[in-house]
Amino acid sequence: MLFYGQWDVTLDSRNRVCVLSKFRKALGVGVIIIQNGKDVSVYPGKKIRQFSAEQMGQLWLVRIDKKGRILIPKKIVQSSFPESRKITWVGWKDYFKLINGPT
User: Fold this and answer.
1) pTM exceeds 0.85 for this model
2) Where are the beta strands (DSSP E) in the chain?
């Protein structure tokens, strides 16, 4: 499935964000979150084999909960989204980018 479009979400008090229902099935039961500097990418969990051993230290495997939310690790929130609880999901072909949302 190709991921496209963008939508704005707000981190809740536990650093969780909602995943749109139309993308949940394609993402599976979990996602891979990768941080590279301030850039944050979210891949379907089934893509784990495409990452090298070097990249494994920079990624998190996160389950999608029953309400369709994922937990953004505290380290990522502090370094990539320190000033705002607003995040924008951006579809980027076979994965998503998380960027600072509107203020």
Assistant:
1) yes
2) 6-10, 16-18, 30-36, 39-44, 59-63, 69-71, 86-92, 95-100
